[in-house]
Amino acid sequence: WVLCTGGFLLLLLYWMPEWCVKATCSRTTVREAEVVLLQSTVSHCPRYYGRNHSGYFSNYFIFSHQFIRYFTLHSTKYYWNDEVQNFEVRLFFGVNEIAVKVPSVFKLLIKEVLNPFYIFQLFSVILWSADEYYYYAVAIVFMSVISIATSLYTIKKQYVMLHDMVAAHSIVRVSVCRANNDIEEALSTDLVPGDVMVIPSNGTIMPCDAVLVSGTCIVNESMLTGESVPVTKTNLPNPGEGDKEGDGAYSMEEHKRHTLFCGTHIIQTRFYSGELVKAVVVRTGFSTAKGQLVRSILYPKPTDFKLYRDAYLFLLCLVAIAGIGFVYSIVLSIMNKTIIIESLDIITITVPPALPAAMTAGIVYAQRRLKRIGIFCISPQRINICGQLNLVCFDKTGTLTEDGLDLWGVQRVDNGSFHLSEENAYKESLVKSQFVACMATCHSLTKIDGQLSGDPLDLKMFEATGWILEEATEEETSLHDRIMPTVVRPPKQLMPPEPVMSPEQDMELYDLSLAYEIGIVRQFPFSSALQRMCVVARLLGEKRMDAYLKGAPEVVASLCKKDTVPEDFADVLEDYTKQGFRVIALAHRRLESKLTWHKVQNINRDQMEANMEFLGLIIMQNKLKAETAGVLEDLRRAHIRTVMVTGDNMLTAISVARDCGMIPPQDRVIIADALPSKDGQSAKINWRYADKPSKHVGKAPRLEVRDGPLADQYHFAMSGKSFAVISEHFQDVLQKLVLRGTVFARMAPDQKTQLIEALQSVDYFVGMCGDGANDCGALKRAHGGISLSELEASVASPFTSRTPNISCVPSLIREGRAALITSFCVFKFMALYSIIQYISVTLLYSILSNLGDFQFLFIDIAIILLIVFTMSLNPAWKELVSRRPPSGLISGPLLFSVLTQILICLGFQTIAFLWVRHQAWYDIWTPESDSKNDDHNIKNYENTSLFYVSSFQYLIVAIVFSKGKPFRQPSYKNWPFVVSCIGLYIFLFFIMFYPVSAIDEFLEVSGHQPGETSFIQILASSFDLWGPKCLSWLCCRQRKVPKALYMHLAQELSVDPDWPPKPTTTTEANPPPPGNTPENCSSCQIMADS
After folding, report:
1. Rounded average pLDDT over 953-961
2. pTM, full prediction
3. How far apart are CA 791 and CA 186, in angstroms?
4. Which residues fall within 8 angstroms of residue 349, CB to CB, at 6 or more apart?
5. DSSP E strands: which ranges in 342-478?
6. Dihedral angle at the C-alpha atoms of 472, 473, 476, 479, nearest 10 degrees?
7. 992 contacts 1017 by C-beta, under 8 angstroms
8. CA 58/CA 60 separation, integer angstroms
9. Where is the composition biased (Polar residues) (predicted)?
C-alpha cells in the first residue's frame, strides 16, 4: 500500500496518529495493553498521542518479583493501579532534574516540512516543472524556504532559551545528612524525597522542594510570587509546642512559610549554636514548584482561534470545487484525447500554493511595526489572536505599580479620638511614644549584607521612623543557646539633650540610663488568614514587656478595648480606602510582669492579641506607574475588561485596583472566602464586603438594587487559597465569579494559569501582562501574553516589551486587530483569485484552450503577489475602538460578500466568453487552422477576452476587500498599494486600447480588441466594484453577532434574584458522592489498544 500510494499513506498516518494506531494494533483491555491512545479533552483540538508521543508502556523493576507498568506523557508518569483498574499519577523517585531537551535542527526540519501545506506546495512545484512553468515554481520554492528557515530559527531559539533558563542552576553540589549525622557531598540530581540536606550559610539556589526542620532562612521567592522581597522561612514546629501548625500532617499549602521551593534563592541562613540549618526534601524534578512551571511552558493547552478553523473549512470547500473541475477536465481530456497532466493544473489553481506566504505577509508587517515601538514577538501567529482580546489580566507589582509602597502619612489616636493626620512620625516629640515604638518593632525586617530587607510595607514604615536596626552577628549567635534578639533604637539627633554627668555616677550606669533601645523578643509572623502580625518587645532596663500589633484596621479594632477605638473610626477608614490608600492599624498592650522570656516563647498567639489599646493608623500609598491609569481607561472605553492577578496580599491589591480605576470608587467589592472541607463538613464560601465594616453594611444596600445602573456595580475578589477551593468544589460558581472577578490575590503560578483557563472556558479572549517568572505559565497559556521583563518571563511569553509599563498593551491590541483584518482581506482576496482563475480556465477548457504560461506568470506575480504584499501594508488605526473585528470567516455578511463577488465574476466572464463568439469577425480555432504553431490554442479571442476581464476582476476584488478604519488606516494612505493598483490599471488599459506587438506576443493575446468587448470588460470592472457592496448593504443590514458564553451567563445572572450573594451569607458545597476520592478524580480515563 505504501508503494501503491507513492508514500502518501505514510504521510496520512503521520498526520492522523489515531488511524496509525488502529491500523497497526488490535483493541484489548487496558490491563494488557502495550500501546495507549490518548485523546485530548480540549474539544476544539482533538489531538491524539500514539507512537510518536511516549505512548508505549515501560516496565520498572521493583524488589525481586514485581514490575510497575507506566507510560510517560508531558513529563508525567502514569502508573497502572490494579485496585482501581486504571492509570493514575503517583510519586515516582527518578533523577532530580528538570530536563528540557533541545531537538536537533534536522528533527525540527522534518516536522516542519511534513506540514500538509508544504507537501501540497511540493506537489505543485513538481507539476509546474513537468508543465515547464518554471518561473512561478521558483518563486514559490523561494518563499517556502524563507518561511521554513524563519520558523526553524524561532522554534530552536525558544527551546535553547528555555533550556538555558532551567539548566542554569539545575545541577549543584549539596550536603546531605546520612546515618549518625555524617555529612556527605552529593549531586543535587541524586536527591530523593526524605533526604535531609544542609542549607549552606552563604546561600544557594534550591534544587528541590524541601521543608525546613531547623534554623531560619531568608529567601528571595520572586521566581514564584513575582514579589522581589526576601521572606523569612522558619523551621516546621514540632507537635506539642503550642502551635496549631505543629499538629497534623505536613501540607505544602498550609506550611508554605516553612517550605523552601525549587528555583528560589536562599540569601542567607540563621542558626542555633552547634546546629546546622537542615531541610527535608519533599518533591523533586518535574513535581516541584519550578518543575510544574516549566511543564506549563513546555506543554501549554492548545489555543483555539476561529479564523484558522474557518480557513481550513473554506479550503476544504475549495478542494471540493477543485475536484469537480478536475473530473470535468479529465472527461474533456479523454473525449478529445489530450494530455491529462493539464487536468492536475486545476487543483493548483483552485487551492493556491502561495496562500501561506500571502497570509503571513500581514503578520510580518505587523511584527515589524511592533518591533519599532519596542515590542518583540517570538510567536507571530499570536498577533492575529491579539486582535480579538476582550479581557486583559495584569500582574500588580512592577506592572501596574512601581515596586513597593510609600508612606503617605500617619493619624495617631489619643484618649479615644483621632489627631490630625501627620506626614511622618520622624519627630523628637514622638520618639518615645508607643505609636513610634510599634512602627519600629512590629515588622519582619532583617539585614542582608548590611542592607535592610523585607516586606516593602514594613521597610517604608520602619524607614519613616528614622530608627536604626541591629542584628546579632553569626559570631554572637554562636555564643548563645538561642538566636539573639533584634534591637532597634532611635538616632541620637531625635533624643533629648543629655544631662550633665555628676562625678559620683558610674560611667557604665550613666550610659545605660541614657540608652533607649527596644529588643524584639518574639515575632508572630504576618498571617494572610488572620490579616495581622504581632511582636513582643522589651525596652532596655524595663522588667515588663510590651506587645505590639499591626494589621487590617477592622481586625485590629476588633481586638482592642472599645473605649480606645474612636467613634468615627469607620468613617475615617472609609474616607482613606475610597481614595485608594492602603491603611494599616496599630495597637499596643502592656504585658504582665509575670510573663518571663521563657513563658513568652511558649504563649499562645490568641492570648497575646487581646485587650489591646488602639494607637492609630498608618496610611500607605502604592504608587502607580504614570501610564497605568490612562491605559486602563483606554481599555475600558474599548470595552476590554481588566483583571488584576497578583502574588501580593488582598487588601493591597484591592487598594491598587481602586486607585488605578480598575474598580471605580462607587463600586462594591465582595470578597469570596472559601474554606475547604474539613472534619466531615462540606467546603463553603463566606461572602463579605472588602472595604465596609460589617456594622455599616446595612446602611448601603446597593447590591439589593436590581432595576437601575447600580445593579451592575459590584466586583468579586478572592485569594489563591479560595480560588483553589472554589475550582475544586464549586465549578458552577466559578464561572459566575470570573464574570465579575476583578482582583485575584496571593495567586501561585499554577493558579494564575488556571484562572486564564477559567476565563477562556467562558469564551473570553484573554491577554496577560506580567514581569516575573511566576507569570510564565499564564503568559504562555493566554491568547496574548506580554512580558515587561527580558529575563525568565520572556522565555514563555509570545511578546516582550522593552517599555517597562503597560502602554504596550493597547498598541499590541491595535496591531493585532489590524493584522487580523489584513488576514481576512488577504484570505478573501486569495479565495476570489482562485475562483476567478478557476472560472477562466474552466471556460477555456471547453474549447480546448488555456491561459498561456506568461499570462499565468503576469497574473500570479505582477498582479497577485504585488497586490497581496502591498494591500497588507495598511498600518493600525490610531486609537482603540469599542468594536472588535469578527473572529471567523463563516459569517453571513462575509460569506454573502464572497458569494456575490463569485456570481458577478462568473456572470461577466461568461458574458464576455459568449459575446466574443457572436461577433462577425470571430474565427473558430481548429488544429488545421493554426498557422503559427499554437499547439495549445492559447492565442484566441476567448482567451484574450477572459484574460483582460479576469485581470480587472483581480484588481477590483483587491480594492473591494482592502478595508480601512476602524481597525486599519484607510487604503488611500497605503501609497504602495495605491501606486500598484493605478499602475496596473494604466498598463492594462494601455495594452487593451493601444496594442504593442512585443507585449502581445509575450502575453500571447490577440491584438485586435473591438470596442464592444472592451466596453464589456470596463462594465464588468465597474459592477465588480459596486455590485457586492450594494447587495451586501441591502441583504445584510441587520447583522447579528453570535453571543459568547460569558454573555449568556451575564444575561442569566441579571435576572437571578439570589445573585450576587449577599454579604455575611455562606454558600456550601454539595457533599461528594461516595467513593469519589481525589485519587479517583485524578485518574486518567483512556482508551487503550494493543
Report:
1. 87
2. 0.72
3. 30
4. 322, 834, 837, 838, 841
5. 375-377, 391-394, 406-414, 417-418, 446-448, 451-453, 468-470
6. 110
7. yes
8. 7
9. 1081-1090
